Records
---
Amino acid sequence: MAQKTLAQILGDFVYELSYADLSKEIIEKAEISIADGIGCALAGCDLPSSRIARKVWKELKKEGRSTAWVDGEKGDSQNTAWLNCLLMHSILHDDMQESTVGHMGSFVIPAALAVAEEERKGGKDLLTAVVAAYEVSGRIALKSGLPIVKRGFRASPVFGPFAAAAAAAKLMGLSREQTQHAIACAASFSCGLLEAVNTGSMEWRFQNGGALRNGLMAALLAKNGLAASPTALEGKCGFFACFGGPEVRDSVLSHREEITQNLGREFEVGKNIFKPYPTCGYNQVGVEVAVAMARKFDIQPGEIEGIHAIVAPENKNYPGGDFHGPFARLDQALLSKPFSLATAFLFRNITVDMYLSKLNAPEISTLAQKVTSEGKAGMGFLDYKIEVKLKNGKTVTGDHHLANMKNYSLDRKMETEKFCGLASNVLKKEEAAQVVEAIFQLKDMPNLDGLSRMFGKIQSR
């Protein structure tokens, strides 16, 4: 009997996974991921890119049961998932998956919710699909994520179609073989470059939406008879070889057992990294360290001679991270270490509003010019060290040990507080708390109507 391909193994996993297979802890992490994603969408719902997305959605949408989170209006699943994806990813506040070096939540959550509503599925089905979708993207990226990013591809839209396809396949009730074909087909629908991030232009936000559509289409095509190449991932002209090069394909093949072992026992969603701040994932810990240093040493901006950040080489080399300004566009500031660290030392925080009201603030521009960085081998994804040289000749230092790592994993209480803060621009605190509570009750919902009606409150304000 021929050895199963990776798409077939992952397809089997998605098809066979049931709610009963999930621990209480994994179910709660899935609920937290859903709440965090929706909160991020509401926080960024009025940004320029979000206004574009909302306008286009109204032109494209068809009749359907899926709900636009921002106002409760209904539309078809494909276009509504596209809109919610773009809102969720609009301010780079959405969760991170370390294996993919990307934002899989912006695919998983919008796709799963939209399809679940369209298919009239309940909360248990939704949560199972969410777990399955994170798993598929994470396993595929396990030995290929960083090498693919180093070649200039943007991880989110490259790996995102797999997540969207897996979520849709599970909720649409695809057969075992159809689910395998959906995942394999998604390999041919991956896309996305890092140049937009490198120059600070806007289209990186819309990459995820296009890739999400591709993943949903892969599932729909498989449902209607498309038979994809079984070796779409590991073949000589497959996903790993084309996006990563022959050496990445060889590495994946040699680590095949490691990639697939523990499927169904250790879940990627349990490793989700949540962001305390609206900035690039590589800047998160740096901002928290800067805020902690400013408070601990009572550092005043006028006392700073220079700020030096020491990070992992992958962090140092990520496109857009070394941009010092001037910041003509919000997109340039979101990726910039100089902007994020300068803002953190100046205001001891970063909020969505700061990008809108302080983008060209002279004090940020001046301090951003004093930021330098270097990559140091051996440092991990969340490792960070900052050295601040003061004008009096002293140097103070701080590192990732100053960061509260609980902020990156979150429990139920912390997520509720975070959601209320994220949604404060569109919901009263008590209304936001009700939405979060409903999400934590998903497992008891026979359908999603109760949750969907809550988004109509935003429209009425």
---
Amino acid sequence: MTDALSAPLWNASISPDTEPHQITLGRGEWIDTKRNNRKILYKTYRPLDAGDGPFPVIIWSHGLGGSREGAGFISRFIASHGYIVIHIQHHGTDSSLWEGKQGHPWDVIRNTHIPRHATLNRFKDVPFALDQLATLDIAPYMDMKNIGMSGHSFGAMTTQVMAGQKRGHGKRQYDLYEPRFKAFYGSFKIPLLVMTGTDDDSPLKNFGYKDRLEVFTHSGGPNQHLIVMDQGDHMVYNGSRGQLAANPKQSIHEEIIKILSLAFWNAYLKNDTAAKNWLTSDAITSWLLDEGAYSYKP
């Protein structure tokens, strides 16, 4: 832990540098026969030596041009604390957009039209994935009553749609709220944690961090949390840089992401009163110091 983040956490045994339990990874694919045999790749993270569970489940959705392989540093850490994390890959808005094509992936994606049906299919992948959880060999370890969702960039939007954010206008408007989720990191009808940073500009279009604050500002659900990290940029959540230059605060930002994520999931998926009290008190401000601004709406 850095000196800048040295104030006590809600549990003295927790550290961003420590993964208390070993994890095991799994990979596979599901086929949705009702959508032209659409293939959904997945990757699982499960704690190995933390008992038989059941463990709360977290679904992770990648950003535009991403894959099930992103954000490993977050999911390893969270899974090591007694969670099962499942990354799903959305064909049509994933790495298939740029793989095998000349040029940097971001440049290729900027010049690619993303049709509406690709976005809708991405959203529909989530309830389909939830339907498939019981088919996994690790299903006996899952706590199906405590499921959360998170995502990066386009994956955050996907999370927001599952949380109750409506999309489209008039007859083209749709509501894909998914009631099986209990909390969201990434509404509006249940607890939500929004993470961004002062340098969190979209790599693909003119969209700055202040635009992202609208999710928190206009959310109407209970227990809404927001962190704006000082000099935090767009790609730190994915564990990769893309075309972004190195950020000297990357290690601090990763610590903040891991600890806040764990506190949020513990509070709302494990009913950890100490974690929730920490999230909703001045203690979190003392911990952050000048590394970020934190807001909470009960």
---
Amino acid sequence: MSRIAVVTSSPPMAEGGHMVIARELRRALRDAGHDAHIIVTPQNRFGRQASAYVATWLTDLGASERPIDQVISLRYPSYAVRHSRHVCWLNHTMREYYDLWDRFSASLSPQGLAKERVRRLLIHTADRYLLTRNVTRLFVQSKTIQQRLSMWPTLRSTVLYPPAPKRPYRCEEYGDEILLVSRLTRLKRADLLVRALATSTARGLRAVIAGEGEERAALERLASEIGVANRVRFTGTLSEEQLIAELARCRAVCFPTYQEDFGFVTVEAFASRKAVVTCTDSGGPAELVQDGVNGFLTAPAPESLASALRHLVDDPSLAERFGSAAYEASAKLTWPETVKQLIVQ
């Protein structure tokens, strides 16, 4: 039995997919007979990122009072911890300085842009060093994440998709509602689903939007303004039992996010025998969805999304057939195999 530290970062009092992965990895490691624990490192706000990197770098887990046999780190800057057996299973780097740089920098003043360019250079330099020199082996959780690091040809990584969390998923029926589960932020693009419902193609279609976030009020206003409020059910945050029940009863899952690192909802839908409709620029979900096999890949436009959803709602047998293929795809991703990959022999 090995004593393993699962190391990740998290904003204070925040809950997201990164913490779900950390807890699921800890559980899987314990199921495999290891003594696994989660260590959460700092993630400071903009302007103070350097202090988070330094504090994490000064965390030498190889010198702990009780010996730690291996470290598995996840999101930035947790991979700055030091240990001689250090595997990184990367969620994501600080996206504002990578794939979201153009969007982020466009909002800055000239003075602010100058400062952030310096920070971007420093963070890139630190990440390159840490991911090549500070870790024994690097895994990434999607090809999308791998592509963000392609600027460094010497950096070698292996794609290792996370399986669905260990939950009692089931399929009760292929009901008449399309389910979207996400934090409601701009990058998740839930407005595409709301706007799709307003198209003539999607006339009569119903949707459930589950989650909280800064965009919820705007989404509710949008639904009211374009006349689909009576066909959208906003549930807020779901408990685990409620999530499983919604997945069990929906017709399919819609996840039109932008350049998602991975997106747990995709594999959770698959485990529930439900097809997923996502977009060609959705990142991780678009890697898992095979167009016309276990879901649809559409252009990130309301009419395109509406057309795909119409097919699934009008043809229950298609939704069931896609759902079966989705389940077969999810069965290939298992936590025991994931643990085998991540353990340093």
